[in-house]
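Lab notebook: predicted structure, single chain.

Context: the supervisor wants predicted structures on file for every construct in the current expression panel, including those that have not yet been purified. This is the next one on the list. No modifications to the sequence; it matches the entry in the shared construct table.
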Amino acid sequence: MNGARGGAVRTLRVPGRHGYAAEFSPYLPGRLACAAAQHYGIAGCGTLLILDQNESGLRLFRSFDWNDGLFDVTWSENNEHILVTCSGDGSLQLWDTAKATGPLQVYKEHTQEHF
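Prediction complete. Output recorded below exactly as produced.
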């Protein structure tokens, strides 16, 4: 994704969201997870974006909304579909990209945002 060697620089604009963390899947080549928030993370909701990269660019595979900004994301080391995000409300969310529903589990362990 670097234009320095003649490769295409790929971007995806998501109106009303600002990206905070992105991580490529260790299992699926070209699959990217991005944690995003509204209003630069100061207020508003968050979104977990699952993107697929191919020769024609980036396409949205799936997205999940959360009631507070999402600031970090990481893939599971044991399952190709599982991710964990952290948000400004102090919780951790466990997501399954194979399912189009909300988080599998929410861990409310902190009283304020954490990174």
